[in-house]
Each structure stands twice: as structure tokens, then as C-alpha cells.
């Protein structure tokens, strides 16, 4: 195997923090993750009113949601890789800065174009969560790594669940612009707290930033997600929808070919193809689907008039508050996932979480006639989501070099995002094609809701099967490691960027003339 002519970089162990400081770091990063995740549901209570508020059509107003989705998909792999290279805390500041700027643009908007631009900027802030997970792995004491990452990973779901009732309360009682001033203020608070309490990670990856790869994956994802998001409006058989799907597949195929050949890829596809990473990411996709299905179905069921015979007649605010306990359950059950991971391994946690999600949707097939029943099955579903989401970072971390922590978790978060986009399209089609007449309107039927629950239940079962295919892991210290890695001597270095460049027949950047300070990665915990 060819080898680099330069000596390998000097390994430096990650800095760890005192227990009291560790608690503060976890709280600050989890708060920041929740603030970022709020952007998912911030405008949901306004969707019906947006065309009138912005003086536009419903089709144009829907871009307020689509723009955030597309920007988040582009941001996650790109900002995660930048964080691995130039400092995760530094790039978190960029994420929050864009989130603040986008919130202010939206707060000052009264027309659709600046509103869409602001929402796109907010979407770029979604890259914070995988970066926060990376910081936790790099600086937390080993015994705290699993529980810390579990809470940070679950913050994506917690923020989305809590955002709906909070946004509904604000939208009903104040001018709608207050939503965006509030999101700017929360993001600014998160930025200040991180600047004061969160240290920079000492771990850096080698090489140059893959700009071509970043542009390629961005174009491919935008094509695919745009087709998924707008297919219902344009028609699934229309030239625009089919053309975007075809373009997305072609661009991503070319991107994959390029990434396999470039010496410093944005996403190391060879690492991604490892069974631990591959099956975890596939499980993330279908669990993302299952999570978003709940957000689409339950609020509609709650708000339909009782006169339909199955609607529960709740107001927008009441429906949001009924969904809120689900967010609280995620906060409770993500630490439980860390405990299971420490004792039984993250694979067990992921399987258990998937089974609990499936059980929750199974309850939803029959328990839809009273408000308390909806609370019960939504809490079961969100508990399972918390357990599953919290297990994923530990599975990913055990299979990738520490210098690729943020990038690997960014790809995992991206898979969840693709899952939510797919759910939006699939559940939308199901509900649109299973309707009943109420007065002069066509509304989703009870059979349509149950079909949606059944599809989500099937997705959760598929996630459990995918999790079962992950190679066995066993607990060690603060989390778990793959069995193959556990056989290595304690303290041995993980594969460095120089090693991987040599294996590809190239030379790692920094081995020939780049004197920017870097550290190699070491196994954590």
C-alpha cells in the first residue's frame, strides 16, 4: 500500500472538562439544539393564514416551509465537514449567526420573497445539532459521552414537538412577526451561552474542503427533496416532478463517483458503507419518516370538527398543547436510552426504540376516539423516537474516526431529514386520496388517518429489522464500540486522514507543506 512521505501527525488526546462544567456544557448545547429544531414547526400554525398574511397564493406560500427543508439538507453535510476541519464551536457560531439573520429577515417581512429567503437562512442553522454531538464526544468525560450525545440527538425531536404548541400560542395571541423576533432572541441567547461556557474541540481532520462535493450533494438533494415537497402540487407524473427526480438521481450518482475518487471527499463513502454506519443511517431515514407522520396526522385528527364522527374538535392551540407531552417524553426517555446503551449496547437501544414506535402507532390504529387516547399513543411514539434517536450517535461514533465525528453525524441527521420529507409526500398522498365530504369541504377520512398510522408502524418495524442487521456491539465505558474495534489495544490511534489518503494512493493535505495546526483523532472513552 502506498504511504505518505511525510510523518504522521502527532496524536493529542481530547480535552475533557470537570463534572460541573460538563453539566453546563450539556445543558447549553441541548438548549441550542432545541432552539434550532424549533424552526421545523415554527410556521406550522400559520400555514393556513400565510397566503393572506403575505399577499400571495397558497402554492407560493408553501415555499416558506420548503425553503427551510432544502437549506437544512444542504447545510448538514457541508457545515459538519467544515466543523471537523476548522473547529466545531466556530462553525456553530456561523450556524447560529445565519439563524439569527434569517429570523430577523422574516420578522421584517410582509411579502413572500424575503420571507422565503429568511426561512432558508434559518434552515442553515439546522447544522448545529451534529456539530454539538461532535463537541460532546471530543470534550466530555468518557462516562458522560453516551448520555450527553443521547440528549443532543433527541433535541431534534424535542424542539419540533415543543415548537408546535409554543408557536400556536404566540400566533394566536400576538402579531405573527413576534414568532421570528422570539426565535432571533433565543438563537442570540444560545450563541452567548456557547461563547461563555462551551470550549472548542481540539480535534481537527486533515485536508482541504471539498467544494465540488459540497456543490454536487447540494444540487442532488435539492432536486430530490424539491420533487418530494412539490410533487403533490405539480402532479407526481408531471414533467417537472419526474425531471427533478431524474436529475437528482443522476447528480447524486455522479457525486458518489467523484467522492470515491477524490483524495479528500466531503463524505467518506467507504466509511459510510461500513455496516454499522450504513444500517444506522437507513434506520435513521425510516425513523425520520415515522416521526414526521405523527406531526402530520395527529394535529389534523384533533382539529377536525366532532360532527365528522371522528374528529375531536380542538382548537389550534389546544391541539398543540395536547401534542406537547410527547416532547416532554422525549426529554425523559433520551437519558433512559443512554442507560440501555451503557448496559446492553446502542444496537439494543435502537431496536427497542423502533419497537416502541411501532407499538405506539399500533395503539393509534384503535385509540383515536378521545383526547386522552391521542395523548397516550403520541407519548408512546415519541418515547420510542427518543430512545432510537439517542442511540444513533453512539453507533456512528463507534464506526468512524474521531476526526470525522461531525461529518458522520451530519450525514445521519440528513438521512432523518430525507425521511421526514418522504413522510410529508407519502402521508400527504394518503390523506388526499382518502377523504370524506363534510359540508362543502373534503376532509381526510378516518380510514385515511389509520392508513397513515399503519404505514408509519410499518416504517418502525423496518427500522427494527435494519437495526438488527447492525454488527454486534458491546458496552465499554461511556458507550459502546464495535466488536472489531474492541479487540484493539486500549489507547491505540484510530485511522488517521494520512492513513486513508495513503490507502487511496494520495497524500493527505498537511503532509506536504500545509503547516496549519491539527491533531489526529484518538478513540474516545
From TrEMBL:
The chain crosses the membrane at residues 24-48, 60-79, 91-110, 116-136, 148-172, 178-197, 209-228, 234-256, 277-297, 317-338, 350-368, 374-392, 413-432, 452-470. It is a multi-pass membrane protein. Keywords: Membrane, Transmembrane, Transmembrane helix. One of its GO terms (cellular component) is plasma membrane. SUPFAM superfamilies: MFS general substrate transporter. Residues 486-496 have a biased composition (Acidic residues). CDD domains: MFS_MMR_MDR_like. GO terms for molecular function: transmembrane transporter activity. It is found in: Cell membrane. The lineage of its organism: Bacteria, Bacillati, Actinomycetota, Actinomycetes, Kitasatosporales. Residues 25-475 form the Major facilitator superfamily (MFS) profile domain. This is Major Facilitator Superfamily protein. It comes from the Bacteria. Residues 475-525 are annotated as: Disordered. InterPro entries: MFS, MFS_dom, MFS_trans_sf. The keyword Transmembrane helix applies.
Amino acid at each position: 500500500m502506498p504511504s505518505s512521505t511525510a510523518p504522521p501527525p502527532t496524536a493529542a488526546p481530547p480535552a475533557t472538562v470537570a463534572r460541573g462544567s460538563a453539566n453546563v456544557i450539556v445543558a447549553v448545547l441541548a438548549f441550542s439544539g432545541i432552539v434550532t429544531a424549533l424552526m421545523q414547526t415554527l410556521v406550522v400554525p400559520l400555514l393556513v393564514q400565510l397566503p393572506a398574511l403575505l399577499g400571495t397564493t397558497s402554492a407560493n406560500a408553501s415555499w416558506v416551509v420548503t425553503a427551510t427543508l432544502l437549506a437544512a439538507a444542504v447545510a448538514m453535510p457541508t457545515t459538519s465537514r467544515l466543523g471537523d476541519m476548522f473547529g466545531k464551536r466556530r462553525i456553530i457560531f456561523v450556524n447560529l449567526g445565519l439563524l439569527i439573520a434569517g429570523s430577523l429577515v422574516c420578522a421584517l417581512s410582509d411579502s413572500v420573497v424575503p420571507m422565503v429567503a429568511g426561512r432558508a437562512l434559518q434552515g442553515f442553522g439546522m447544522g448545529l445539532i451534529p456539530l454539538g454531538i461532535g463537541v460532546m464526544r471530543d470534550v466530555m468525560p468518557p462516562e458522560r459521552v453516551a448520555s450527553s450525545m443521547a440528549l443532543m440527538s433527541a433535541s431534534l425531536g424535542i424542539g419540533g414537538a415543543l415548537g408546535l404548541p409554543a408557536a400556536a400560542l404566540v400566533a394566536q395571541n400576538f402579531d405573527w412577526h413576534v414568532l421570528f423576533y422570539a426565535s432571533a432572541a433565543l438563537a442570540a441567547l444560545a450563541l452567548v451561552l456557547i461563547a461563555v461556557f462551551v470550549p472548542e474541540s481540539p480535534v481537527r481532520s486533515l485536508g482541504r474542503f471539498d467544494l465540488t462535493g459540497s456543490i454536487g450533494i447540494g444540487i442532488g438533494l435539492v432536486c430530490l427533496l424539491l420533487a418530494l415537497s412539490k410533487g403533490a402540487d405539480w402532479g407526481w407524473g408531471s414533467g417537472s416532478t419526474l425531471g427533478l427526480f431524474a436529475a437528482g438521481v443522476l447528480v447524486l450518482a455522479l457525486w458518489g463517483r467523484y467522492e470515491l475518487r477524490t483524495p479528500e471527499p466531503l463524505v467518506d463513502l467507504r466509511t459510510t458503507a461500513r455496516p454499522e454506519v450504513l444500517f444506522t443511517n437507513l434506520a435513521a431515514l425510516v425513523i425520520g419518516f415515522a416521526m414526521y407522520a405523527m406531526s402530520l396526522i395527529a394535529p389534523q385528527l384533533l382539529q377536525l370538527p366532532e360532527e365528522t364522527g371522528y374528529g375531536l374538535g380542538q382548537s389550534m392551540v389546544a391541539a398543540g398543547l395536547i401534542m406537547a407531552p410527547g416532547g416532554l417524553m422525549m426529554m425523559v426517555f433520551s437519558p433512559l436510552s443512554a442507560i440501555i446503551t451503557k448496559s446492553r449496547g446502542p444496537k439494543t437501544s435502537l431496536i427497542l426504540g423502533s419497537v416502541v414506535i411501532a407499538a405506539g402507532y399500533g395503539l393509534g390504529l384503535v385509540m383515536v376516539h378521545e383526547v386522552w387516547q391521542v395523548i397516550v399513543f403520541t407519548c408512546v411514539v415519541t418515547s420510542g423516537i427518543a430512545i432510537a434517536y439517542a442511540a444513533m450517535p453512539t453507533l456512528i461514533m463507534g464506526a468512524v474516526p474521531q476526526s470525522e465525528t461531525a461529518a458522520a453525524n451530519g450525514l445521519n441527521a440528513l438521512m432523518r431529514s430525507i425521511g421526514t420529507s418522504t413522510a410529508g409526500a407519502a402521508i400527504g398522498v394518503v390523506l388526499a386520496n382518502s377523504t370524506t365530504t363534510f359540508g362543502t369541504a373534503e376532509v381526510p377520512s378516518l380510514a385515511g388517518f389509520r392508513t397513515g398510522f399503519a404505514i408509519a408502524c410499518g416504517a418502525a418495524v423496518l427500522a427494527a429489522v435494519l437495526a438488527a442487521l447492525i454488527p454486534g456491539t458491546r458496552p465499554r465505558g461511556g458507550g459502546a464500540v464495535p466488536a472489531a474495534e474492541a479487540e484493539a489495544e486500549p489507547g491505540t490511534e484510530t485511522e488517521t486522514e494520512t492513513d486513508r489518503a495513503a490507502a487511496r494512493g494520495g497524500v493527505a493535505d498537511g503532509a506536504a507543506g500545509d503547516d496549519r495546526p491539527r491533531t489526529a483523532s484518538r478513540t474516545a472513552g
